[in-house]
Design goal:
The complex is a heterodimer.
Chain A: H1 2-22, E1 27-34, H2 40-50, E2 52-59, H3 62-70, E3 78-79, H4 83-91, E4 125-138, H5 139-142, E5 162-164, H6 168-178, H7 188-202, E6 205-208, H8 213-218, E7 224-228, H9 229-236, E8 242-245, E9 252-260, H10 267-277, H11 280-290, H12 305-308, H13 317-320, E10 324-325, H14 333-345
Parallel strand pairs in A: 1-2, 1-3, 5-6, 5-7, 9-10
Antiparallel strand pairs in A: 3-9, 4-7, 4-8, 4-9
Chain B: H1 2-48, E1 51-53, E2 59-63, H2 66-71, H3 74-107, H4 110-121, H5 128-138, H6 144-151, H7 165-190, H8 194-201, H9 206-217, H10 219-234, H11 238-243, H12 251-261, H13 265-307
Antiparallel strand pairs in B: 1-2
The chains are: A alpha/beta, B mainly alpha.
């Protein structure tokens, strides 16, 4: 009895090892990205064209991703960090210096937007998507003559029904922009006046909210919310009353980027993937799907009229001039933390 | 006679020995669990609070008390006061609401008792977050309740029942009420109500016998209820985050901000350390009360013997 059992188990083991050995060895590419941030049919197409397998893993903040990589998570080939995080990762020596001859499609990048990437010459990173911060609002509450300005938060008529981002750089940045200052200022006087403006706005806010504001707009809980373009475009289909606008004073632009890690196992395939994402048609399909702007000159011609005519995705030049990218302030970050604490505690 | 006593003593000590070693063996797994997942992390948090931060959100080199001195300013006092105030109010309201429920349950028939216990436990079958989310729907500014309040002129049309301190307090009370009812119920169930009858027979008024006889009789239950409500309320994070407004932050939210947004681990750890101290303090008081109660009980127990 015992013997037959052992025999049975061994034969099963042998059989399974035989079958698993039969499958052809496919090359694998490990990608670490934000969730809902890529058109997955494009991933499938790349897999088919290159006879490989892509494994997608997701993170919800730059810090989570960075902490995981620093803790020794190996095996990822391509990661999608935001601008400041590219700086941090490069300083820590995690990123591969890019060989531009392997990414011929780099020529498609739109020079109007590349300055918003902190790595302007794509030495270690390639811009993936440009996002901006603006105001999501209910058209029925804003009225027909709505002129988007950050000062909407000063309107006490909507007290308790507006939100700003629970992010010190974005919230203080909006007040700085309203006053005509740079969002990266370290001038104490400018920060102090921004603090006063922000405290005034705070009294009209329902809360500082970084995530749930989109559902609040859908359920008409909030009338005006400072939010990220892609977030608000994604919920527009759920409530036709939702609009999105970029304040006339300008706003923050952020570039998310593709980087190859030094520890990548399959750099050739990683280069191929980045080059694939930079193809005009592919980038256009990606824009249509996630509603963020891929800074790709060749892509614009393939976009639908709906996206082309949208000033919040393809921004008019006069507003674009007033926009800035957030830079990592390093130790000067403390200035902002202090102001933020004071704003939060203010009566 | 003497031999018999000796044998009995031997047996007794044998039993005692067996008991002690078994006790240690039985509690070893939970002690280990506490050591690995509670004691060691707590010590790590305390240690980090004395380190320097590095600009990348990690832990820098060298030791300092900057983490503590940075949080000792006026805005910290505002949030500390709000946290303590909301936790105290939650505790008091929970106790006031739980007391009649617990008394009713303790005095009810076994059948009703079981039914009520079940009713109290059933909400726990739903995830905590979902229950808090439900409150967001109940208090929604376009919701039914808001509309009723508006008809009676209690809130302005554009106003909201959510995102203020009152909403935080309401949901805190909702979340911790069962934790106040259960220990009170167990204490009251053991309470001998004939003592109250005796007090009334001896001429004590209703209020007096409630305060002098009933409350001291269930003091252990009250202390437990206070502990299981006040301590977790101090560390609230999710509730003020979800239903609180721009003025609804509590210490838990501040710690989260320091860790996730400011990327300053030592500062967050310093605040956590203060919170841990604040939590341990009532615990120590509790142990102290228990000890003095025990010595009192022993003294009481001894006295009649002496009299005999």
């Amino acid at each position: 009895m015992q013997k037959t059992k052992t025999l049975l188990i061994t034969s099963i083991l042998i059989l399974t090892s035989l079958f698993s050995g039969c499958a052809p060895e496919k090359k694998e590419l490990y990608i670490y990205n934000w969730s809902d941030y890529i058109n997955e049919s494009l991933v499938k197409r790349f897999e088919d064209e290159n006879n490989c397998k892509i494994i997608l893993d997701y993170f919800d903040s730059n810090e989570t991703m960075y902490a995981k990589l620093k803790a020794g998570a190996a095996g990822y080939d391509i990661v999608f960090p935001s601008g400041y995080m590219v700086n941090v990762m490069e300083k820590e020596g995690l990123l591969l210096k890019l060989d531009h001859t392997k990414i011929p499609n780099l020529k498609n990048l739109d020079e109007k937007y590349t300055p918003f990437s902190l790595d302007e010459n794509q030495e270690v990173s390639v811009p993936y998507m440009i996002s901006n911060t603006g105001i999501g609002y209910l058209k029925s509450k804003a009225g027909d003559n709505f002129e988007p300005s950050w000062n909407i938060f000063a309107n006490s008529k909507h007290r308790g029904r507006m939100t700003m981002l629970n992010d010190m750089r974005e919230a203080i940045g909006a007040a700085l922009k309203y006053l005509g200052y740079s969002i990266n200022t370290t001038n104490i006087m400018e920060l102090e006046s921004a603090k006063k403006v922000l405290i005034g706005w705070k009294h009209n806010l329902a809360k500082f909210e970084a995530d749930q504001y989109k559902n609040g707009l859908v359920s008409q809980e909030f009338y005006f919310s400072q939010g990220y373009s892609g977030d608000i475009y994604q919920v527009m289909s759920e409530n036709k009353d939702i609009g999105y606008a970029i304040p006339k004073e300008g706003t923050t632009l952020a570039s998310d980027n593709m980087v190859i890690l030094k520890t990548a196992k399959n750099t050739e395939l990683a280069y191929k993937f980045i080059n694939f994402m930079l193809d005009g048609k592919v980038a256009a399909e990606n824009i249509e799907y996630i509603y963020y702007l891929a800074p790709n000159k060749e892509a614009y011609q393939y976009l639908s009229d709906e996206i082309k005519g949208n000033p919040a995705i393809l921004m008019p030049d006069e507003i674009l001039k007033k926009c800035e990218a957030m830079s990592d302030l390093g130790e000067k970050n403390e200035l902002y933390s202090k102001i933020w604490d004071e704003v939060k505690a203010a009566k | 006679m003497n031999n018999l006593m000796m044998i009995m003593n031997l047996k007794k000590s044998g039993i005692m020995k067996f008991k002690i070693s078994n006790e240690i063996k039985l509690s070893l797994p939970s002690l280990l669990w506490l050591l690995v997942f509670f004691m060691i992390p707590t010590v790590i948090v305390v240690l980090i609070s004395f380190k320097n931060p590095d600009p990348f959100g990690g832990i820098g080199v060298g030791w300092s008390i900057n983490g503590f001195s940075d949080i000792m300013n006026s805005y910290f006092a505002v949030i500390l006061w709000r946290t303590v105030k909301l936790s105290l109010l939650t505790t008091i309201i929970c106790l006031l609401l739980a007391m009649p429920v617990a008394i009713y349950m303790a005095k009810a028939d076994a059948k009703i008792q079981n039914l009520l216990l079940l009713l109290i436990v059933i909400p726990f079958w739903t995830n905590f977050l979902i229950r808090i989310y439900a409150w967001k729907t109940v208090l929604h500014p376009e919701g039914f309740l808001k509309k009723i309040f508006f008809t009676f002129g209690l809130v302005p049309e554009n106003g909201s029942l959510l995102y203020n301190e009152g909403a935080v307090l309401l949901v805190l009370v909702y979340a911790y009420l069962p934790f106040a009812i259960l220990p009170l119920y167990t204490a009251i169930e053991k309470f001998d109500f004939r003592l109250i009858e005796a007090a009334r027979d001896l001429g004590s008024g209703a209020v007096r016998s409630f305060v002098k006889i009933f409350l001291p009789g269930i003091s252990q239950g009250i202390i437990s209820a206070v502990m299981v409500v006040f301590i977790p309320a101090l560390g609230s994070y999710v509730i003020p985050d979800m239903v609180g407004g721009p003025d609804g932050e509590m210490l838990g939210n501040k710690i989260a901000q320091m860790v996730f947004i400011d990327r300053n681990l030592p500062k967050g750890s310093a605040l956590s350390t203060l919170l841990i101290l604040a939590v341990i303090l009532p615990g120590l008081i509790r142990i102290f009360i228990k000890k003095s109660n025990l010595t009192e009980a022993i003294a009481r127990h001894k006295r009649p013997k002496v009299m005999q």
